[in-house]
Specification:
By secondary structure, the chain is mostly helical. The chain has nine helices and no strands.
Length: about 190
């Protein structure tokens, strides 16, 4: 199976999972692959939005349901959690919309919001809007980046699309790194 066929077959699923687990790397790669015609641009945006939305909803639900659980209590002891709650109290709507764009607060924020008094419906509505905005932005950045890559590597046509392996490897490494960090944090506790 060629890399193009592999991406066409599993690319949207990878974007969906990557958007929820790792974040930007797979979504940027999805935009790049959409530029190359291997994935549908609207399909990539939808997969990224739904993956991100579902992951954040699951973390919000975990914070809401298990607020007294030791896992959540340990998270509450971290500075990022306190910072998330402090910002949430001052700017609830803005924070719920923007947390996915803030480095270091992406994973802990939905849990923190879940432990707060933000109504479920409010979080769902703002989270949905934010997930769509985030996915359109990062997929589009990947698409635009794809234009530059195609132009750069278009000069070196003898190599064909071998650069796709580099992009795919970077995306897989990004996912592996995110998974390793999650596993290591879990193991330390």
């Amino acid at each position: 199976m060629s890399i193009e066929a592999l991406i066409a077959r599993y690319g949207l699923a990878a974007v969906f999972l990557g958007a929820g687990v790792e974040g930007e790397t797979m979504v940027l790669a999805g935009g790049l692959f959409a530029h190359e015609g291997m994935l549908s641009l609207p399909g990539t945006m939808i997969a990224a939005a739904v993956g991100s939305f579902m992951a954040d909803q699951a973390l919000f639900a975990a914070g809401r349901r298990f607020r007294e659980h030791r896992w959540v209590m340990r998270a509450q002891a971290k500075p990022a959690f306190a910072k998330a709650l402090q910002t949430l109290e001052r700017y609830p709507t803005g924070f719920i919309f923007a947390f996915r764009f803030l480095y270091g607060l992406r994973t802990v924020s939905p849990v923190a919001i879940g432990t707060s008094h933000v109504p479920f419906r409010t979080f769902v509505a703002i989270n949905a809007l934010a997930a769509v905005t985030w996915s359109v932005l990062f997929t589009s950045l990947g698409y635009v980046f794809g234009t530059g890559i195609a132009e750069l590597f278009g000069r070196y046509r003898p190599h064909g699309r071998q650069w796709l392996w580099v992009v795919l490897a970077a995306a897989v490494l990004g996912l592996a790194f995110g998974g390793f960090r999650w596993w290591r944090r879990r193991k330390i506790r």
